[in-house]
Request: fold
Amino acid sequence: MTDARRLGIMKLAGSIFLIAFAGAPIVWMAVISFARHPEFLARGASFAFSLGNYRDILTDPSLGILQYLRNSVIVSSISALLVTAIAFVSAYSVTRMQFRFRSSIPIVLLAVSMFPQISIVGYLFRLMTSLAWINTYPALIFPYTAIVLPLAVWLMMSTLSQLPRDLDKAALIDGASRWRTMRSVILPIAMPGVISTLILAFIFSFNEFMFALMLTTDYGARTIPVGIALFTGLHGETPYGQIMAGAVIAVLPVVVLAALFQKRIIQGLAGGSLKG
Amino acid sequence: MILLPVIGTLITSFYRDVAFMPRALTFPDNYVRLFADSRFWQSVRFTLLFTLLSVSIELILGLLFALLLNEALPGRGLLRIMLLLPWAIPNAVSARVWELIYNYQFGILNYLLMTLGLVSHPVNWLGTQSGAMLAVLAADIWKMTPFVAIILLAGLSAIPREIYSQAMIDGAGMRQRFFHVTLKLIKPALVVAVLFRTVDSIRVFDLLYVLTGGGPGGGTTSLSLYAYKYYVSGDLGYGSAMSVVVFLIAFGLSLVYIRLGRFREAVQ
Reply:
């Protein structure tokens, strides 16, 4: 067998393995979500198709799945917008203006982004209790903005430092203010980086678990990962069919984002960690 | 903004701060208690073992995936999307899927193992120490290998093709090219992937909370999960002391990262 041929077979086997590795649990989630009897494997029965699980969770408001999804989308969208806006402005000032300690900013950002959430959650709980914010959107939006911010600033800095300073200079000479230069000259050409940051910030907020678990109590603000995690039946049983249907609905937003913005996400993840 | 809560946690860790009891400064009682707490040491051991195993396996598998995706392949875009999915799905949601896969009676894992004749009795994945360890490792590897692969892929795609053709002209075989060219050139990406993953793995929480609840017998309780249990039970002082330990481990490791990062700049 020639080298090229052996390589071809390896690539094919690798691709099949990758698809099976990544896809199997997701496929199984979808299969069970459509199963009339989620425990059919134990009974020696075969799979029976049903939309019942979806009908149950979508029509029974006491299960709250749609409300959790709504909370998640609202909280993550606002956090992502807030974080990206703050990150863009701070990264612009850091990359365009001269001041002391400028060079140590990326390292500080990196160190801060590695803070374990557990070392913050107790304090947050107390703070949100005293503000009477427990189980409200702001109780999640502000912490999410804070924890995603270091990464977002890092990403925006790596985007903005690649844009030539001459652009700024030209605009400033033409009489535009700093603010206007940033908004009308730099923002449009930095758009790809801004979109990467927005999407990553959305995914990180959407997937956050510990804060949402601690700082929300019911469908008023509970996010969908917590909703799915705590999903149990009324009589203590575990309704896997409904849970999997809920899981499919829960992952839809991120799956759609991943499929549509695959390149942006990969660039963001890789750029955020490799360029400094 | 983010430092304030950490300092708040540090201060709380010096106090006896238990629900329905007067707050009192008792430093260093909480830390002395940690030393004598065998469950604390059990969670330290679990956290470190989990981190070591998950990060090394994710690194090897991630490198293989990155090498694959760096080749010209039909359907490469689709492969990349497939790879992104485990990473993009919330941990708490995929943990419920794993819980179902590992189910003793009707989980597909036992079904497949029995059908293939690999085991004669169903395995109690989540009910035994070693089973639960394997179960959480597999779930973590599934989710985080894509992240490692993406970082390494960025490193790989930055290697100019000419280096390989030159190495081939110089008579380097496939194995030599891999060890002397590829691995050497993606070393910065490897460092980044290892340290990001290590720090992330040290603070593992979601997966364990949902999949095993830290059991059986506390065998899969990470430091974060153990601290969380004290927070929930109302003992904020002791929980904070434990959080400080998690923080110190993670912070120490990020200092290592910064050192290595500098080292990288110096080398280039």
